[in-house]
Amino acid sequence: MNINLKHLHYFWLIAREGSIAQAAERLDLAPQTLSAQLASLETHLGQTLFRRAHRRLQMTDSGQWLYRYAEQIFALAEEMETGWTQREPQAPIQLTVGVAASIHKLIAYQLIQPALSLDRPIHLRCHTGQTSDFILALKKQRLDVLLTDQLPQAITETDWVITELLRSPISLFAAEPLASRLKADFPASLHQQPLLATSYTTPYFQQLMLWFQQHQITPGFVAEIDDSALIKVFGHHGQGLFAAPAAIRAEVCRQYQVKELARLDGVKDVIYALSRRASTQHLGVQAILQANTSKKSDDLAD
Questions:
Q1: pLDDT tens digits, 17-29
Q2: Which end of the chain, N or C, is less surrounded by CB atoms within 10 Å?
Q3: pTM of the model
Q4: Contact, 67 vs 41, CB < 8 A?
């Protein structure tokens, strides 16, 4: 077969990015140059590797067959490159972490912190956003690890390394005046009371809604806030009660001057780490996975 590895790398990058223009930008090449290189590979193989579909390139059956092998080849190359750059003890380790916006920032910090405690300088880049966008960034090797509370339905463990880092019951919090008033006849006292909601699609919030339903409670939604830090600020100012993992209850109460109203053991928040298989060789990723998978849910409590 005698494939030119440079051409194979170009094909793999085009497939990963979904267009010649985006791949060319990543490679700092002119799109015409990259298109010519792809055409050269297709001529050499005697096969068409892409077809156009809705302004994007879609792999043919031959392209998908070739891509499966290219993925393995370049994943191994990434693993080798990661391992090589980490051989020099004084060289800074580049670590890029994605954090789903719905994850509480106190938890995100404590999950990432083991990487910052390595006996090596770390250059950390941390981004918050939506899990769906981060999955694409992982695929394109723009992230080393993703912390998320929601696994996409289409993802499988053959695609990624999926590690559960934390499983914690959920607690309800409120500013002192509201918390004192609601404690008297809890949980019936919650009916029609102001609730600050995170994204309605997060798993633990769906569990919370089921808990309300089981107790015949209809909360009064006053705001949907998808940022975990901002929702606590609203709660601090008495705008409503909010939910957060019991694992950080002490820090939530201290930092935002609120009271824990109740701990709901039947409602769980679960945090996962997603990484490419090659990234498990990354010292920073290893530190995050190894330190946190050995913890119990309440280890972050105080």
A1: 888 988 888 888 8
A2: N
A3: 0.71
A4: no
